[in-house]
Specification:
Elements lengths: L1 E5 L3 H11 L8 H9 L3 E9 L2 E11 L6 E4 L4 E2 L4 H17 L4 E4 L7 H9 L3 E2 L9 E6 L4 H6 L3 H12 L3 E5 L5 H15 L7 H10 L3 E8 L2 E11 L2 E9 L6 H15 L4 E6 L11 H8 L4 E4 L4 E4 L4 H14 L4
Parallel strand pairs: 4-6, 12-13
Antiparallel strand pairs: 1-2, 2-3, 3-4, 3-5, 6-15, 7-15, 8-13, 8-14, 9-10, 10-11, 11-12
Helix pairs in contact: 2-8, 6-9
Length: 336
């Protein structure tokens, strides 16, 4: 019988993630600290079979007018996935959701969406979430262990040309862990949100503060004629460097290309094995809002890394209000 206990030891939690789901960014202890700063309810539970930890789950209560839900982003993380274990884990997490008046549990573990796994989720009462493919369930990942020359040769010709052009015209790059340099990103991010019509993330400052304290984040900014043109927030999680947020203003100078190249070079210097460009448009859909950005990311070389879509496990009949609202929003935003 699997039992749940509050988990309080950060080092052991991180070691479990490094072993079973090193790319599960939103299950990282530091991400829980970011959520706490945003006044979200965070519950870290260890899942034990006798005295052996066989799983962990960082659960966040997401409060929304359409219905609160318990979000286990990139989790739960289990040492093994089988029907018996998952059924008990589901019951434990659903009980926590019910305790907090949530309409459902939403999980999105970093595992492949194979037919047997999907069947296991469906048989356990799971419903594919109506939300679009988010949290980098369809990501673009580059192995950065080869030499810089090899990485350059593996890029699209246009990408390689734009990197060299940016260097030639004198684009400057800064790599910083200082809070004062976050202002470059913040100002560019405001312009980016306005230009593309998306709602800005509210927790970026907290994210930067928490991760830099553990030397797990940097801001990389590109300047042309002393003016900031493009910036990126890079997080370090397990064996990956993650391009988690980007910002830029319209420019004929290819600053964004050099920002990404310098981010890759910096990650290599840290001994990181993979550079994760984060989410891309599923199946290369040209009508998808991320299509242009996806083409930019793919130009650096790499491959698609796909994990299972988020599944919801209803707790209340009010769940269907959440489902319908999210489905409509997905259609209106062009994510279908």
């Amino acid at each position: 019988m699997i039992q749940a206990r509050p988990y309080t030891i950060e080092k052991q939690w991180e070691l479990f993630l490094d072993t079973y789901a090193p790319d599960a960014l939103f299950q990282r202890w530091q991400w829980g600290e970011v959520c706490t700063r945003q006044h979200e309810q965070v519950y870290r539970i260890g899942l034990y079979e006798k005295d052996t930890c066989i799983g962990v789950a960082q659960c966040i209560v997401v409060k929304a007018k359409r219905g609160n839900f318990l979000h286990v982003r990139h989790g739960p993380v289990l040492s093994r996935w089988d029907k018996r274990v998952f059924s008990q884990v589901r019951n434990i997490i659903r009980a926590l959701a019910k305790e907090h008046g949530c309409v459902c549990v939403r999980i999105s573990p970093r595992i492949e969406g194979s037919d047997p796994v999907k069947k296991m989720f469906r048989n356990a009462g799971g419903i594919p979430a109506a939300i679009h493919a988010m949290d980098a369930e369809c990501a673009w990942v580059l192995d950065i262990t080869p030499s810089e020359d090899t990485l350059l040769s593996g890029m699209r010709k246009t990408t390689r040309y734009e990197i060299r052009r940016a260097i030639k015209v004198g684009v400057g790059i800064t790599i910083s862990k200082e809070k004062k340099d976050l202002s470059y990103f913040t100002e560019l991010y405001k312009e980016t949100a306005k230009r593309h019509g998306f709602v800005k993330h509210t927790g970026i400052e907290s994210e930067f503060d928490v991760f830099t304290k553990k030397d797990q984040a940097v801001i990389i900014t590109g300047f042309f004629e002393k003016k900031p043109i493009a910036s990126a927030l890079i997080l370090f999680s397990g064996h990956q460097a993650i391009y988690h947020h980007g910002a830029s203003i319209a420019s004929s100078i290819p600053v964004s290309y050099l920002v990404q190249w310098e981010a890759i070079r910096y990650a290599k210097e840290r001994g990181v094995k993979e550079y994760n460009f984060w989410g891309i448009a599923p199946d290369g859909d040209p009508s998808h809002p991320w299509f242009g950005l996806s083409a930019f990311k793919k130009g650096f070389g790499g491959k698609e890394a796909r994990t299972i879509h988020a599944y919801d496990f209803p707790v209340s009949f009010r769940y269907w209000i959440l489902y319908v609202i999210e489905w409509v929003r997905k259609q209106l935003k062009g994510y279908s």
